Amino acid sequence: MEVILLERVPKLGQMGETVKVRDGFARNFLLPQGKALRANEANKKRFENERSTLEARNLERKGEAQKVAEGLDGKTFVMVRAAGETGQLYGSVAARDIVEALAAEGFNIGRNQVDLNHPIKEIGLHKVTLHLHSEVEITVELNVARSPEEAERQAKGESLTSVDAIYGVDEDALRPEDFFDPDADREFEDEE
Question: Which SUPFAM superfamilies match (predicted)?
């Protein structure tokens, strides 16, 4: 199906371009979201008549997105979650949780604007991309930790999942003898 784009769509085209897309993509995404019109003569004339209005609205949305991006620039959001000793979360951090954390800081972001292919399942510092507008993207940092104190330690660069953080041992000083006693097997052999 051929459609006329009403706004820039990543990997597809710019506003005003007529592009050929699969029928399902047009029917299920582009047309219901108001991102495109079917490419027929009536819609082409309608688009040309409304072009200046659409461009002005697009610039306004882009400006608003850039203001939000400036507010988010360089921010780190702390998320406290329950996790095991190895850093594995008992649950996960999904796009919905990220939206709630941003809303608590006063940023109104939609769940579909969070680019998170897989939920976050371990503590640590994670980069998450937000698509605020088709032309405005920003990356924020999530500090997922078991407590606010651990979040502060992680922010300073300390690892909470390494052997020394878990057991209080210097990882470089570990030797196999520390974990394995070669004489222990001999004791069992003598008893038999």
Answer: L9 N-domain-like, Ribosomal protein L9 C-domain
